[in-house]
Amino acid sequence: MSILSSEQKAIQQAAKDFVAKHIIPIAGKFDKSGEFPTVLLEDSKPSNIFAMAVPKEFGGLNYDALTQALVLEEWGYGCAGMGTTLAASILSMDSVLIAGTDEQKRRYFKPMLNAEIGSFGLTEPGAGSDAAAGTATAVKKGNEYVLNGTKCWITNGGFASVYVIFANTDPAAGVKGISAFILERGIPGFTIGTTDHKLGIRASNTVELLLKDVHIPLTNLLGKEGEGMKIAMKTLDMARPAIAALSVGLAQRALDTCIAQVHARFPGKPFPGQTLQFKLADMQILVEAARDCLHQAMQLRDAGVPYSKESAICKTFCSDVAMQVTTTAVSLMGSYGYTSDLGKYMRDSKIMQVYEGTNQIQRLVISRAVLAHPPAPATSTAQKAGK
Amino acid sequence: MNFELTEEQQLIGQSARDFGKEYLEPIAVELDQKGEFPKKVVQALAKHDFLGLLLPDDVGGAAAGFVSYVEVIEDLSRYSAAVASIVNNHTIAAYSIQEWGTADQKKQYLPAMAKGELLGGFAIFEHGPTPGVGADALVATKQDVGYVLNGKKAFVRNAGEAGVYVVFATTDPALGAKALTAFLVKADAIGVKVGEKLETMGLKGCPVADITFENVVLPQAALLGAVNGGAAISAKALAVASVAEAAQTVGIGQAAVEHAAAYAKQRVQFGKPVATLQAIQTLLAEVATDCHLARLGLRNAALLIEEGKPFEVEAAMIKSFLVRFGSKMLLDTCQVEGGFGYSETMPLPRLFRDIAGTNLLDAPGDFPEKLIAASIA
Amino acid sequence: MPKCLVCYKWTLDEQDIKIRPEDLSLDSSRAKGKISDFDRNAIEEAALLVEKNGGAVDALTYGTATVKQSLKDCLSRGPEKVYWISDASAENADANVTANVLAAAIRKLGQYDLILCGEGSSDQFNQQTTSRIAALLGLPCVTFASKLSVEGDTVKATRKLEDCQEDVVVKGSVVISVLSEINKPRIPSMKQVLGASKKPNEEIKIADLGLKPEDLQPKAVRKSVKGFVMQRKNVIYKETNAADNVAKLKVSLASEGLI
């Protein structure tokens, strides 16, 4: 954990309190039913937390990256599904932050101030990791674009007010022919398809989006034509650490649950032997290292320093840690693990390694950064040490 | 040294696979969703002699041997690990009666168990740190004509459906686990109260519940094995059970890797099937390798059991291996299928939830490594 | 109380056969053996008839050295005894050779009320062996049986033909081929599998069948076997109106006689 300012500590505590009051008590119910907790949005209004990434000039909280990570960790601790709702909303608004005009920002950040949410529509049935293989089209006709296509596995899609949707304005140009658009809920031709029933993060809404001759004004283009993939990649860079934050919260929750179960199981004997103790120690090591890795990446971002590699590293490491810690927790706690929320944390963890860029894609990004240039040869102690 | 199954064992496996395809595949999803005990399937299992596989033919069993048994469990698990769980928990109870029961006890219970008319359950775990210790520990108080049981058992599989339970109670709370004693308790005995069915992450359809025993009166004839001999009985039975459970893990893993491989061959991204990507090949290969090695390890342990040789170390080794690599089989295959591996309309999520239930360290603080280390150091 | 004989073939499981992409040749190195699909129906039918009417089922098979792997499988499915002929000539045998061998063996074994075979083998599917055996033995032949019953010394069969169904009655010994729809082969129970090793099997040496060398020479020689890979047409209908695409698809399917 980074050393926090008193303001950050206060925000972290407020998030803990909110999660304890409004998320933890309802998490089990929504995990079971798979329904979307609209009540959560209502409860979030006073804190304005859905606008935590929105700049002050547009009415938002303008939390820095580290502070956002603190909040998201708490939400991940409470319920990774509900945390995903917040994270994905910020993901979509990050696109607007990166490429939007002031007018677009003003218009599309406004709903966030009312705890309405955004949705990021990139994935298609044939375009998962190969995001550039999308076939949705946006044809310019006079002073409008007409959009057609299908998006799938879109988080928040069934309940969002605003959407960032990617479509081909120039299919022949491949990657360079993809553009980003802002859509509002309720536009004719823009409908919500099937809802996916998932292994985990079941409180998070995941749907198909159907676009059939959707007419939008030219002013809904985000950035320039052909810049869509660039915007998407920059957005994901920015938003990836949110998944790392949810993962750290998830892992911490599983660890805390194990510790509580150990105390209950061995009353008066909190140190039940090396094998069990060391496994818990290993879990603690991973959770703390994951948190530190995330915080370091966030400090780079807040300092305005390039952090693309660190963003990929922290997403990968933190989600892998969550998966490992939650899996160990279920096995270690035996039938307690299997009949308790530990099962939920293990189920929730799996998607952290997959969405917002699979950990395989992350490793591509990282390995390319690492192998791009051979390291400088080590120098002897007689000379100045290399960089 | 022959690593191949015998012809008979292969035919047995083939029958189990054909049974799985015909009876389990059509109901596996609904069983997982509704969790209703599959009575018709259990009847069909009985008809094909799967419920009396290990029992001798003089009680109506098939006397097939333990290697055949784990082959069956692996094959059934490919289709429904929940059903395999029902069979495993029933079989461990039957095995216990066969190994340690008197002639009368065997006659009383085993023929019906072989026919599937009577289902078995095994009640060992408790909520305290160790069976026989703690406030809720199950205590057997000696009386003139037998024993009276009071206390609670935790996480009993087949609870509510079993007609007879192999139950472990301490005859002396002061001695705790050292005075653990095994009993055969009929489900309809007065005072046996099966608690509410517990919500499990997977293996739904095999019921799990706590059982409370309130002044359950048992005749002397209910004693299984020697007084205070329960620790040895439960240790051996649980060791056998862990090998049987390992077969479930391998069956689930096999089904998962086959599904993921088929998926990877047809899922095209970046212009090629993802099966051509080294990243995907690594995931599939690791799972296939671990599954293969686990299968060989568990067959070895099964053969030792079948031949009546010491097997507890080998059983602990296979458990230790699968605690580390069992669930990984589904973590990796789900990763191969990406979003499709996360959607409950596809099979992998159910297999993910099921496999996590086969590597549980239920004996509290009792890790398999302890026994392995004791055998070498 | 019919005395039944079932003839079956031990073939490779086609699921395990891989097609080499370079030349479409077949890689059977990892293929396991199985009783030919329709022969399983024949074995099952014989077992069912005997369970209903009494009597006994023998089985007979002719194959290469691998034929010994089939014996327990067969015996777990109902027959009381299996006779087997193992000879290299089986490798390239055509229906003519197979029928010569089986008919000669049947003559040696004696009288049977019913001789059952599958409609065809799951590997070559010539659909000739049954009729040839009947001809060589001078017995009546009923093919494509979808239903069978026995009443005393009479056999009643329903034949399912392409455009009609035919009911046939035969008195005395008869050779019958069965369709897959006649029954559902049992999944042998554990006891049936384990009981198989207690049942007898007997080798019949091909030299003892009194056949001439030319009887074992195939008249139809297989030059090669290649895999068939379905070529995808990859046609995409791209009209903006879905109804137009459906109309085009309809026309395409109709022109191929598929609808």
Topology record:
The complex is a heterotrimer of chains A (387), B (377) and C (259).
Chain A (H helix, E strand, L loop, with lengths): L5 H28 L4 H7 L20 H14 L1 H20 L2 H8 L8 E4 L15 E5 L2 E12 L6 E7 L9 E7 L5 E6 L10 E12 L3 E2 L5 H38 L8 H29 L5 H25 L1 H5 L3 H11 L6 H13 L16
Parallel strand pairs in A: 1-4
Antiparallel strand pairs in A: 2-3, 3-7, 4-5, 5-8, 6-7
Helix pairs in contact in A: 1-3, 3-4, 3-6, 4-6, 6-7, 6-8, 6-10, 7-8, 8-10, 8-11
Chain B lengths: L6 H18 L3 H7 L4 H9 L18 H14 L1 H20 L2 H12 L5 E4 L15 E4 L3 E12 L6 E7 L9 E7 L5 E3 L13 E12 L3 E2 L5 H37 L1 E2 L2 E2 L4 H29 L5 H14 L2 H10 L10 H8 L12 H9 L1
Parallel strand pairs in B: 1-4
Antiparallel strand pairs in B: 2-3, 3-7, 4-5, 5-8, 6-7, 9-10
Chain C lengths: L2 E6 L1 E3 L5 E2 L6 E2 L5 E3 L1 H17 L2 E8 L7 H5 L5 E6 L8 H15 L4 E5 L10 H9 L3 E11 L2 E7 L4 E7 L2 E5 L11 H7 L4 E3 L38 H14 L4
Parallel strand pairs in C: 1-6, 1-8, 6-7, 7-13, 8-12, 9-12
Antiparallel strand pairs in C: 2-5, 3-4, 9-10, 10-11
Helix pairs in contact in C: 3-4
Describe the structure in your own words.
The complex is a heterotrimer of chains A (387), B (377) and C (259). Chain A is an alpha+beta fold and 387 residues long. Helix content of chain A is 51%, strand content 14%. Chain A has eleven helices and eight strands. In chain A, the strands form two sheets. A four-stranded mixed sheet of chain A has the order 1-4-5-8. In chain A, strands 2-3-7-6 form a four-stranded antiparallel sheet, with helices on one face. In chain A, strand 2 (137-141) and strand 3 (144-155) form a beta hairpin. In chain A, helix 1 (6-33) runs parallel beside helix 3 and helix 8 (308-332) packs antiparallel against helix 10 (342-352). Helix content of chain B is 50%, strand content 15%. Chain B has twelve helices and ten strands. Chain B has helices spanning 7-24, 28-34, 39-47, 66-79, 81-100, 103-114, 230-266, 278-306, 312-325, 328-337, 348-355, 368-376; strands at residues 120-123, 139-142, 146-157, 164-170, 180-186, 192-194, 208-219, 223-224, 268-269, 272-273. In chain B, a hairpin with a 3-residue loop joins strand 2 and strand 3. Chain B is globular and about 80 Å long. The two termini of chain B are 28 Å apart. The mean pLDDT of chain B is 96. Chain C has 259 residues and is an alpha/beta fold. Chain C has two domains: 4-216, HUPs (Rossmann fold, 3-Layer(aba) Sandwich), CATH 3.40.50; 229-259, no CATH class. In chain C, 26% of the residues lie in helices and 26% in strands. Chain C has six helices and 13 strands. At the A-B interface, helix 8, helix 9, helix 10 and helix 11 of A face strand 9, helix 10 and helix 11 of B.
